[in-house]
Amino acid sequence: MPTTLETVVARYLRSRNPAQRTREEYSTTLRKWARWGGGVPIEELGRKEIRDFVDWVYDDAADRQGVNPGRTANKVRSHLLAVMSWAWEQDIVDALLRFPKVKPHRDVAGRHYLTKAELNSLYFATHKMKRPRAWSQPFPVGRYWRSALVVFFNYGLDTGTVWRTESFHEPILWRHVSWHRQSPDREVKEQSPWGWLFYRRLKTSKAFHRPMNRTVHMHIKSIMPENPDPDAPVFVGGGTRPNNRFRTLCDLAGIGPKTNVETGEEQPSVLKDLRKTCATYYDEHVPESSVEILGHSAGGVTYRHYAHRAPLAFKAIMTLRQPSAFTALAKGFDGQCPCCRRRFTEAAG
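The structure corresponding to this sequence follows.
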């Protein structure tokens, strides 16, 4: 019996359990597919049909006076690519199609990553963060934020993986930190002299065992209690709205909001900018490494060859060049400017 695209998309979403916003975007793609007249069974879907559909989406967006029809068409293309890759892995289709090229489009958000200078400013500005109400932790809140900035930069984590702000979030706990050279995942052959971190991706629930480099190791050690509770979260100080505290930190660091290049409107900074920053620097350092390190769900074919990608991620993480401020702790300059040795004073509550 022929399989419709709607059926495969429904099965794909059930297997991935994505966020509600992602589900809505796939539903929009299916509505466009129906308007186009897509009655082709997925077993008979070819490159020509996909190209015609993507071209139709582009023309339809242009006719509706969309400001960026290329981006709209590429979003639909990415949805089809993810679904067809999954269908191939599940043996629903015999071969993975060769997809048409992406359409030219404009990045409506402008530059959405932070420079090394901005990361240094954020790191030093954590010393100015005020003590939250009822703060009972053994270290100043800024120290936890410095460690959080380091892991955001090195692993591109979701905010909920660092600070649990929703009931379904699974944050990094102390039992997820291993100080041994050998990975807790015995399928990983590489050894890290600095230990390992375990966490799950929020959208896909995919588990990762990542090596700690020297910088991450030193910062995790700096916030470890004398007798850590295995079920206690590693990172605290995010509050119920970590993005609000991040914007306050940006103000302390003198980093202004982003500007939308299409409308000229200012957009507030969010912690997801650090995830995009991670992807930017990893791809500059080791091309294509960000796909594996960030755990993008669109890389279905990539994960089919996971054994070949894991060493790439290991090499990238262990050799990524850190912002100069991040290395101050490892060099013994905690609380000091690494260039002039000026000591920072933690802000009072």
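Residues 298-308 have pLDDT under 50 and may be disordered.
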